[in-house]
# Entry
Amino acid sequence: MTGWYWPKGMICAWKLPDDMKHNRWRSLVALVVLAMLLLGCSPRIEAAQVHSTGEHVSEIAGDHTAGQTFVAEHDGLQSVDVLLATFARRNTEPVTFHLRREPASQDDLRTVIVPAADIADNAYHRFSFSPIAEAHHERFYFEIESPESRTDDAITAWIGPADDYRDGSLYVAGNAREGQLAFRLGYSLPYVGWGLLRDVVASLPAGLAAVALFVLPGLALILWLVPDCSWDGSLTVIVAAGVSAALFPVLFLLADLVGLRWGSSSVWVMLVFCAGLVLWHVRRQGASGRPAGKTWRGLFKRPAKETLVLWALAGVVLGVRWFVVRSLTIPMWGDSQQHTTIAQLMVDHGGLFDSWEPYSPYASFTAHFGFHAAAAFFHWTTGLDVPRSIVLVGQIFNVLAVLALVPLAVRVTAKSGHDSRAARWAGIFTVLVAGLLVPLPMQYVNWGRYPQLAGQAILPIALWLLWAMADHRGRGGWRLAVLAAISAAGMTLTYYRMPFYYAAFGLAWLLLYCLIEWRADRERWFSLCRRVVVMTLVLLALILPWAANLAGGQMAADLAKDAAVSTAVDQVVEDYRLWRGVDGYYGLPMLVGALIAGVWSVKGRQWSVTMIGLWAVFLAALPAVQLLPLPGVGFLNSFAILIALYMPVAILVGWLASDLAWSAAQGRENWVFAGAVAVLAFATIWGFRDRLRQLDVRHELVTRADEAAMAWIRDATPPDATFLVNGFLIYGGTSAVGSDAGWWIPLLGGRANTMPPQYALYNEAEIEPGYGQAVVELVATLEDSPPTTDRGLKAVCDFGVTHVYVGQGQGRVAAQELDPILKPAELAAHPAFDLLYHQDRVWIFALKDDACPQQ
# Structure
């Protein structure tokens, strides 16, 4: 061990100061520096692909080489460990390791030469080199050769499963092969830290723009409608973020009605106007001599300790989500493809649209669009491309979905008889549970199910505003009714299932809060009725224009079908079988904690808490509503409910933790605070570690190899090319979806393919009648008869296919036992297909001009 590397090539010094023993401070500093140096001597080793199939690449000798493409996850790449074998002999010729940018390149970034005698049999050998400073998310290729070796005096390398690594493939003698080498990557820790710091600094402009985008519109609206509100400052910021999220689809819809188009300039004008409105309100408060409301005192006074803890915890929740997606340029799994397409079309049209061209041949738009509007606003605000905007806005909503539970948790706890400090701690523990201790909602990053996540970020705020409207005493209740209506409208436009979740809470709230707390207080009931009328009128005014757009479409037909025919009992029972795995979503301890909280609240007659438990029960009962002939019940299924239960679970567990802590306080609040912080810190570290591992690369459809292929498609194929891509049937064979990166070709490669976005295929109006049915029939045909058969080839030709794309994932989807319809080895061997591109595990073929049968 000779030292370690520092940015700019500085080499560490090992000598401690001569007078260290005479100066305690200098000694302490020296020991800390020494600890850092020793830490830097050991690289951070990360597994890339460490499994072996029991096969090897045969002897590495002469021009027979073994290579591997890969993507570095951090800066400071300084070693590659490769699983090698010696055939249980002592080989004599030197082995050379080359690190390059691409397999075709001959320029070495680093070269390492080792004697074959130093290589152990069936063990990882580390090839170490000086760190590459800026390696994060860069693509590399390493090759091992020994040109002077003979087949009886040579080493070999072990091969791993082809699907175990998503960002590269095995190369033998310079040619891509199915498989991966077994290898690990090592990074210099100082460089890793430096790279993280650089990325954080680089992300600050986008982060500040996101804060402005998600806070200023809602805050301005709150101050305009409720200028004398007395809400806590932190709660006001969270509520403002939820209201802003609700405003995005409302603003898109209103702009569309009057013929206005959005763009970068208009979005920034809106934000500057909102900022001016906020500042004007602050100045007016001071000029009028009126005391500022608690909101402004809460925003500008010295924050309470609980407030600092809350925002520190929120920073951890945000940090872990940012860290896991810092290398992700394309959102994951199937839902993300259609969401990115919709957002890109909104950007292209400056708002709502009625044609999916040039990405897909459809001529209507009826999908919920709140998340997509937010992504478009974020793109215009930051200048980031739409796919990356989808990734980042998804994480913003992921954090907001957690923080949005805080106002509801605080109100529930306060209504149960606890003081404000205990209520704030309930909010903190709620954030801990939903943000770090349970897989949901962070799991949404793997699914790309962002519209539901966005709806669930608005839902708790809309419910809190409903409650605040009902509790408000005085003449300004109608203002809160308007604010509640705007939030409910935005929530509905963001995700069509949300009104059912909202209604489930409303029913529990009426039964276990209003009826018990208000009893025969007729004035309260009359006041609530008047405000509900105002809220309903505003809500209808905002959503009816979009409802008119839905009329006559497939969505309206599905609603009519739900109202005419109920779901069979056996189908509902089968749907409920998913609930047997509920502990896999939240963990048994959290479910038990939520159950204890519900029972404990009943015993203590703390009905506001019991109400949250009843809300969970009503949510669980929603799939059974499919038995009734009611419009919209087709939206309800157990999976959609299961992945939303983190809301009541987190609130119940957060209340229980706060209740236990402050019930035991009895005048020892400071000690309880210290203990709560200690427990919180331990749980945060535990949860942070678990959430860091939550990203599942098996859900990644588009890899770096696919991105490189998309660039090649744009440059090397004709504009009128149509690509056959992998896919499979869903919904009982009535629709189809893609299963690898080929699905993304219209967006990333600028060419047509055979797989439109699933929502368009299933719900939107076709430009060419029968197109959707042709897509489904093509997939059905190829599942039985691949394109290398006469029947399959005829179906491909009839559809107008000119090229074939097989992505890095090769049509294999996580948790799906699929036999891909496109097998590249069979295509390469068939005379109808001409291989144009093969890098890593990506294959591109051209259908030969004379391949199609004559009509």
User: Anything to note?
Assistant: DSSP finds 30 helices and 20 strands in the chain. The two ends are 73 Å apart (CA to CA).
